[in-house]
Amino acid sequence: MKQFLIATVIAGLSLTGIQIEAQVYLDARQPVEKRVKDLMKRMTLEEKVAQMSQYVGIEHMKKAEKEMTVEEMRKSHATGFYPNLHSSELEELTKKGMVGSFLHVVTWKEANYLQSLALQSRLKIPVLVGIDAIHGNGLYNGATIYPTPIGQASTFDEALVEKASRETALEMRAAGMHWTFTPNVEVARDARWGRVGETFGEDPYLVGRMGAATVRGFQSNDFTGSDKVIACAKHFIAGSQPINGINGAPADISDRTLWEVFMPPFKACNDAGVFTFMMAHNELNGVPCHSSSYLMTDVLRKQWKFDGFVVSDWMDVERLHDYHRVAPTLDQAYRMSVANGLDMHMHGPGFAESIADAVRTRKISIKRIDEAVSKILEAKFKLGLFENPFIEGEKVDQRIFTPEHQKTALDMARKSIVLLKNEGDLLPLDKSKKQRIFVTGPNADNQTILGDWVFVQPDDRTTTIIEGLRQVAPENEFVFYPFGRNLRKMQPSQVQEAVQQSKGCDVAVVVVGENSMRYHWADKTCGENSDRYDLSLVGLQQQLVEDIHATGIPVIVVLVNGRPLSTEWIAETIPALIEAWEPGSLGGQAVAEIIFGDVNPEAKLPITIPRHSGQIQTYYNYKFTSKWFKYATGNSKPLFEFGYGLSYSRFKIGAPRLSSGELNPGGTLQASVEVTNVGQVAGSEVVQLYIRDLYSSVTRPVKELKAYRKVHLQPGETQTIRFDLSEKELKFYDEAMNYVAEPGEFELMIGNSSRDADLKKVKFQLL
Ligand code: BGC
What we know:
Layout: H1 2-24, H2 32-42, H3 45-51, E1 53-56, H4 58-67, H5 70-75, H6 87-95, E2 101-103, H7 108-118, E3 128-131, H8 149-154, H9 158-174, E4 179-180, H10 204-219, E5 232-236, H11 255-271, E6 276-279, E7 283-284, E8 287-288, H12 293-303, E9 309-311, H13 316-322, H14 330-339, E10 345-346, H15 351-360, H16 366-382, H17 396-399, H18 403-416, E11 418-422, E12 436-440, H19 465-472, E13 477-481, H20 492-502, E14 507-513, H21 541-550, E15 555-560, H22 568-573, E16 576-579, H23 587-595, E17 651-653, E18 657-658, E19 662-663, E20 668-677, E21 683-693, E22 704-713, E23 718-726, E24 732-733, E25 739-740, E26 744-751, E27 759-766
Parallel strand pairs: 1-2, 1-10, 2-3, 3-4, 5-6, 6-9, 12-13, 12-14, 14-15, 15-16, 19-27
Antiparallel strand pairs: 7-8, 11-16, 17-20, 18-20, 20-23, 21-22, 21-26, 24-25, 26-27
Bound molecules: beta-D-glucopyranose.
């Protein structure tokens, strides 16, 4: 009787317990930590590893199933497909709660549909939808497209980068997406690599500042809320200095370079609270990043106290087996990466079963799985997915490409376009002269201005360059000769025809560059997996510029490209050169406004432009001996230096003054300069501060950017800019790789580019 009573009481309690508990993870008023714990308690091992599994969107699969043979799909890197899994089977898996996340879901309808499948599962855990919203939610039709990150970095305007990221987060949530695979904070050191355009350039400090601003914009600090998204610092690490410039090729670099150059921007993102890291395709000094416990566990978790989750890149866990060959079987590849710190697998089947089996056979601890799953669930709770898994489809259109977002995209485009040359003040063109302007070139009238990570966008949401010119200066006459977008297929007869048509015109605008359109995968020349061994203009573009120049018409060359191009002849011969990068939805308007002087250019190069691919690597923060000797032929200097960019105003930057000639450890030194606009129009200048350690126990770069400030000045106006400097800015890794500042003499340089000629110097002593 006693036993019966006890049993009844326990049963009663646990029944009540279940009722109370049932409300815990579904109860939005409970703290996230408690909800995660409660849900984890209820999950089977299979349900847990399912959370660690990401798949490509079902519509993406259906498209591939319809359009491609199995053989074609097997060979395709870009199209998601799973040889032994049909899209209908993936739907069933989702209903059973066997999918934690999807990527590349590109319509709100699909996003809602996938959530409806997930909510049929036992525990009703919503799916996390990830997408490459790199500069706007570009894979979504109708989104606002901002300039690509290389252009964003050219603004030297972190607040603007944060704003554009915040707006992108709003557009993502409006369409049912919760996780952006950005920022790419790789330090770009090889222009041959096709992905330079999605980075913030070559300087660890600038890349870190821009990366952190991006994270803040997307996540709004703690990303709790139904209008925030989580960000992803990628690709960890050093894939931006690949052997021969090939995406995914080995990174074979010293520990010093790793820590001085490549790590700081990732650390900056971690400090800004980024919730996910994506590992890099490449190996780092012989160890593939996807199997590196040093990177995923020692650096991220232990050293940096990273508190989010790590995702793999597209098929890279599988590549441990079939490319890198560090895992004799796929099972070993899956286990190796998870045991060493990977939390989510992008993408496909095989992984979950294998990991569950590894836990059952004690090859991986359940603790490791719980660690991963709890972070993925934390994201879902904080993002409010349990409360609001669906989005209101009818409201999407009012929330994307809004007038406010367009304004930001335009503002950013205006501030991202770098004026590289303006001989004889050819620019700006005077609208009132009502000139006959010839416009041509393969990038003058198409969506190459949108850059990589964008699918085709509605024409009425894209202002091409010729459209921008017509819109901004309607009183002028434009003679336009189109080329089509395919650079590889330019015909000599087209070039001849263009030259004919240019006859009698007062000036020519020739728009050339690269093509990063990923929906024309075979045609593109730039962007992901479009690396080059030569940085000259593809096809007959060079010929086109030369032939038009030969007619005697003054030529303005506009470059639209996602990587630096070695246009030495153009830079030396053509009077006006504009680097527009890939300026986004309203890029054509911004280019036109700069050409006609409605906007005064203010952007600066975030990356050095080499004269030739043979000059790679070339960057401003080199070691002295890299330039010990000149090349026997040609000009050894880069074409354009980091930090360089012209304005229609002229700025005078005075000599830097220091608050003291000595800096005490723990103290601050103030450096100030006067900046005067000595030009005729208002404009903005980026004042840059560089440091050189004059003598040190290990070699140091000839200069390193430590601070910058943008200042807007009316003609004749002067402002004093102050920078605070502390011991922190003087630290580096000594021989034993301790991060230290050594007492001694330093040189401080301030100016408006990294070129020696543009810098004024003063020395001080660290005590
Ligand atoms: C790229 C990643 C991207 C992923 C998902 C990969 O090919 O390397 O940067 O986030 O695809 O689209």
